[in-house]
Amino acid sequence: MNLQQRKELIRTVAEKFVQGDHFDSIEWKIEREGKDFSAGFVSRNEDFQRESNLIYRIYSMTKPIVSVAAIKAIEMGLLRLYDPVAMYFDCFKSQMVLTSSGVMEHAKTLINIEQLLTHKSGLSYGFNTGCAVGNLYARAGLVHKSHLDLDSFVSEVSRFPLAFHPGEGWRYSLSTDVLAGVLEKVFGKGIDEILKEIIFDPIDMKETSFFVTGKEKSRIAKIYGKENIDDPAIFSSKFNKLDVANIEDIYPSDQTFVKARGGHGLFSTIGDYNKFAAMLCTGLDKYGHPFISDRMMNFALLNRVDTKYRPLVIDNYEIPFDGYGYNFLGRVMVDQSKARFLTGRNEFGWAGAASTYFWVDRDENLTGVIMAQYLGSTIPFAEEIKSIVYQAL
Fold first, then answer.
1. Which domains does the chain have, with CATH numbers?
2. CA 94 to chain CA centroid, nearest Å
3. pLDDT of residue 46
4. What global pTM score does this model have?
């Protein structure tokens, strides 16, 4: 099989998932050395077969963007990894821990910024069904309180106990929402303004925001699957059923009804998110100037999760992140001998709950962004596409 045939296999695999009614559409953009390696769009709608102009709800792919804003704050001397969150929010000065045995005890230490960046804080998510604290979040509908500003939301989060002592575990969580609240204190402005000034403008991400207005709303991709991300069964099904999910109340596009978050909430296009991935690969802004220094980028990409807390697992139903650790931006490959799919030695990136995915491989000067819209899918379509990309290198 020659190089061109391997590239064409990417489309073949994407078409397989769409024709099998697993996804309504899949879009991808792969670049190597800053040039198109493979790009395409397949859809059940024949009118969309040639090109896409879709805006996607990227859910947790919001997190790496907020984390980069925190990294920039560290570079600027405005934030330190060892700063306790209690420096910025008094409500975190005294935290309780709900242990696995059901006992409440005082937290040994305060949560710090490094633990927010790496999900070692002891916070949780409502869809963490095996977590007693997560179950408390779900019953309170915590993640859906989008009407609260970040200051109020962080205060609400602090009312719940921690799932473990800070630094003594790894659990995917609302840590990045709390981090966004800290950034608002540090910069003295809203997280939406911070991201625009610190990241979106310098990288030329003109179509990424927490809100979509006017005629642009017609470009928002339909989303399928579960409507409630805290549904205990959200990641339990091995099959996708293409029922349209009405999530405008939960993930609104209208600024009138929602406040900007840190862990989810952004809308973006594949072209825009590709610019973000390209910056992570090169460290450069839209003008070719350094955006993050090489030393800081290398520092940020180091794995921060001890072996005893790996493999990383988001929930009981999900496939473990075998071979991966976690850095300031998301997963990072640390042991290829345990990887389930072909990938790079130091590849890193993250994904969103509605089937969006990206990765960066600085060794290969390679980036990939894959977008679909199915909330709660466990089908590893993006990993399969990524594996084919590596075969074609």
1. 3-65+204-392 (3.40.710.10), 73-192 (3.40.710.10)
2. 29
3. 67
4. 0.96
